[in-house]
Specification:
About 0% of the residues lie in helices and about 45% in strands. The chain has strands at about 15, 20, 25-30, 40-45, 50, 65-70, 70, 75, 85, 95-100, 105-110, 115-120, 125-130, 135-140, 150-155, 160, 165-170, 180-185, 195-205, 215-220, 230, 235-240, 245, 250, 260-265, 270-275, 280-285, 290-300, 305-315, 320, 340-345, 365-370, 375-380. The strands form 10 sheets. The chain has a 5-stranded mixed sheet, with no helix packed on it. A 4-stranded antiparallel sheet has the order 3-4-5-6, with no helix packed on it. The termini are far apart.
Length: about 400
């Protein structure tokens, strides 16, 4: 390729979307501000030097409007036809500006540098997620060589952690970026997204670097999914009565309204209908007490199970008279004798006392034998002479 280079058709370099137009332009491409992106310096015919910062990437540069370089508070001006070159003129680890002019002079502008930590963020910011779906990273390097080993200590709050507590640079690798990976701490709480700050503090043998600091803001996105919370798991009804209630009032979910309810085990003493949000429970006849079923609620990401309790209160059922025992022997002629008639009474409500009342008809005397232990009573009806 170098022996036989092939080029595309020309295209004009632009800044702020407009073609750069400098007469007798002398361009120099260089990472001027230490952000790992190639910038553009251009000398023009009147002796000035323009700086065009690349705000995108080296492979796809986007330049902003040119700025005139200054030295000592004044605009760099070498008379005319400036030809800038960037080089570390005095070997201090800082790039200096060397400019030739039309008269043959060469001017050197030494970079007066203050030690600075250069932090380069991935895609321009640092964002992490509590779910752990995405970590983020950034790079750190120095803008000038330290006189000896330099330690950069990292500190931060409890919302994040980093993969290393400190970085170490030397006089030979000061401009080699070191990567720090940031991860959010999943605290399980449902919080709003927040900003955490990573502080970088320098220490070492070089007095110029001692206590040099830099801070990096990290956006912590709380994308945890809150589980459904059961706020009600009891209902009360009465015996022999259909009980209905809205199951959705039993659950809250701070980040979801689309909940799925599933009955994992059915109640034992009645029939539960869970086909709609309006649950219904029909207790077995004459049954009262406490029944339950296992309910699961899911928001599509997490689920919660709870034992749902149903209390059925008793009602006082009337006693039952089994009238088919009220019988005498058919086709038997009774005359002047007592006719034995039997009946059975019962009450499903345990502990209730049954009182039997016999109504007299036409003043016929009625006698009752003692209770035989099975709620069966024998009544004797004395008949007057005659036929019935």
């Amino acid at each position: 390729i170098d022996a036989d280079p092939q080029f595309s058709s020309k295209s004009n370099v632009q800044a702020n979307g407009v073609d750069i137009d400098i007469r007798i332009c002398r361009p120099v491409v260089f990472d001027w501000n230490g952000d790992a992106k190639k910038d553009l310096l251009a000398g023009d015919y009147n002796g000035n030097v323009y700086y065009y910062e690349n705000t995108n990437t080296t492979h796809d540069p986007v330049l902003i409007a040119g700025q005139l370089l200054t030295a000592g508070g004044s605009i760099v001006d070498v008379g005319n036809h400036s030809t800038p070159v960037i080089v570390d003129w005095n070997n201090d680890g800082c790039m200096d500006l060397v400019v030739g002019d039309a008269q043959g002079y060469v001017r050197v502008f030494l970079q007066q540098t203050t030690p600075v930590l250069l932090i380069s963020e991935t895609d321009g910011d640092t964002t992490v997620y509590e779910s752990g779906a995405t970590d983020d990273s950034y790079e750190v390097k120095l803008n000038m060589a330290p006189a000896g080993p330099l330690t950069v200590s990292l500190s931060h709050d409890a919302e994040i952690y980093v993969d290393k507590p400190s970085l170490t640079f030397t006089s030979t690798d000061w401009d080699t970026p070191q990567t720090v990976t940031v991860t959010a701490v999943d605290d399980g709480d449902k919080d709003v997204s927040s900003i955490s700050t990573i502080s970088h503090t320098c220490s070492g043998m070089d007095i110029n670097w001692i206590d040099v600091t830099s801070e990096l803001d990290v956006t912590v996105v709380d994308d945890d999914n809150a589980s459904p919370v059961i706020v009600k798991n009891t209902v009360t009804g009465t015996e022999d009565t259909l009980l209905t209630w809205d199951i959705t009032t039993s659950v809250v979910d701070s980040d979801s309204t689309d909940l799925e309810f599933t009955v994992k085990s059915s109640p034992a003493h009645g029939t539960l209908d869970s086909s709609t949000a309006n649950y219904s429970y029909n207790p077995n006849p004459d049954w009262n007490g406490t029944d339950d079923f296992l309910l699961e609620v899911s928001d599509g990401n997490t689920s919660t199970q709870v034992t749902y309790s149903i209390t059925i209160l008793p009602v006082n059922d009337p006693p039952v008279l089994t009238d088919n025992l009220l019988s005498a022997e058919n086709d038997v002629f009774y005359s002047g004798a007592a006719i034995p008639l039997q009946y059975k009474s019962s009450d499903i409500d345990a502990g209730d006392t049954i009182t039997n009342v016999v109504f007299l008809i036409d003043d016929v005397p009625v006698a009752q034998d003692p209770y035989d232990g099975d709620n069966i009573y024998t009544q004797s009806v004395a008949l007057a002479a005659g036929s019935y």
